[in-house]
Amino acid sequence: MCSSGPLGPLTRTAFAHHCKGMGKGQKNLGLMPKRARFIAVVGCVLSFLLVSGFACSKTQSGQTTVTIDSTSFHPGNLVVTKGTLVTFINNDTQPHTATAVGAFDSGPIAPNGGRWTWVASLVGTFQYHSLIQPTMAGTITVIEATPTSY
Question: Are strands 137-143 and 77-81 parallel, antiparallel or unpaired?
Fold first, then answer.
């Protein structure tokens, strides 16, 4: 049997609509399950995006590599913790540099596997490029290391 609930008596039409399809002992399963499903799906999607966002923006520490090909640095944008060793490897057939004015300058890095390593000892964001091919550019952001546990 259906009652009018805490909001007071229902009109005959509203009562009939409210109780439509309900048998003895059943609850109104109309809108609430859809809303609950929607909230659950949105919650799952947001949780996934949050977790994958952290995974995609992972800060490098210890050591990392930037490769150089004929047209670009890979990765082009990098976030590392202070003290990280950043090694540039030139996979092109021509020499290149990794130059951030006032922060670092590799000088010519030999082609076909030449390497140069920079210690990220300064906190900040450094835009660098190749002096040999200035359209090749990248960014390294150095942040303070944070404790992983207390």
Answer: parallel
How many CB atoms lie under 10 A from the CB of residue 73?
A: 22
User: Do residues 4 and 10 make contact, with C-beta atoms less than 8 angstroms apart?
Assistant: yes
**CB 137: neighbour CB atoms within 10 A?**
15
Burial of 94 (C-beta count, 10 Å sphere; 0-12/13-18/19+): middle
pTM for the whole structure? 0.60
Whether the per-residue pLDDT at 16 is higher than 80: the answer is no
Are 117 and 87 in contact by the 8 Å Cβ rule? The answer is yes
May I ask the CATH class of domain 63-143?
Answer: mainly beta
Where along the chain do its domains lie? 63-143
Sequential DSSP letters for 73-141: EESSEEEEETT-EEEEEE-SSS-B--EETTTEE--PBPTTTEEEEEE--S-EEEEEE-SSSTT-EEEEE
Nearby residues of 47 by Cβ (< 8 Å), 6 or more positions away? none
Q: What is the pLDDT of residues 31-54, one digit of tens each?
A: 557 766 766 665 555 454 433 333
